[in-house]
Amino acid sequence: MKLRYAMVCSSNQNRSMEAHFLMKRQGFDVSSYGTGAHVKLPGPSLREPNIYDFGTPYKHMYDELRRRDPDLYKRNGILPMLKRNSSIKLAPQRWQDNAADGSFDVVLTFEEKVFDMVLDDLHNREHTLMKPVLVVNLEVKDNHEEAAAGAKVALDLCQELEASDCWEDNIDNIVTAFERQQKRRLVYSISFY
């Protein structure tokens, strides 16, 4: 693979990790991040989410939630998700703190507000490399079924970008063909490192 990818959602738990998992299995150079202030997972009710700091190991979250209510967190898919996540990397990472990870060629977000936060962060960084980065938003609802479907669509898009000789020259054509084929609208922008 010739391009380096970042998958980004709000908490680096569901959508970005499902895409990270699928793309990693296909041999892509991929990382994943969240843009939120904290990591939020569903709790016993909407008013009682489970909140963690970025950097808290997925295994720690898994063990804690399994102790609290194993039936609830197994039934709502949180325990299997955390188990999958811990097989990919140690802990959720925050996009805004990823400077040490270097630069990416493509950043794929799964929610418009996350797209805006990534662009804002890139625009406020010091541009030392002047290396272009393609930032694309593929809107995906934050549930397990949609995350799995969205990951497959994200993989298709990344395969199209890999097949291109130069995404910078072909991005308009790639996006137009992709939207027509997938019947999904993409929003994209080009920024710099």
UniProtKB/TrEMBL annotation:
Superkingdom: Eukaryota
Question: For this chain's UniProt record, which GO biological process terms are given?
Answer: mRNA 3'-end processing
User: According to the UniProt entry, what is the EC number of this protein?
Assistant: 3.1.3.16
**In the UniProt record, which is one GO cellular component term?**
nucleus
Q: Where does the UniProt annotation locate this protein?
A: Nucleus
The record's annotation in InterPro entries points to: RNA_pol_II_suA
Catalysed reactions, as listed in the record: O-phospho-L-seryl-[protein] + H2O = L-seryl-[protein] + phosphate; O-phospho-L-threonyl-[protein] + H2O = L-threonyl-[protein] + phosphate
GO molecular function terms noted in the UniProt entry:
RNA polymerase II CTD heptapeptide repeat phosphatase activity
Coiled-coil features, chain-numbered ranges? none
Q: Name one Pfam family in it.
A: Ssu72
Q: Which UniProt keywords apply?
A: Hydrolase, mRNA processing, Nucleus, Protein phosphatase
What this chain does, per the entry, is described as: Protein phosphatase that catalyzes the dephosphorylation of the C-terminal domain of RNA polymerase II. Plays a role in RNA processing and termination.
| Similarity comment: family membership | Belongs to the SSU72 phosphatase family.
Protein name, per record: RNA polymerase II subunit A C-terminal domain phosphatase SSU72
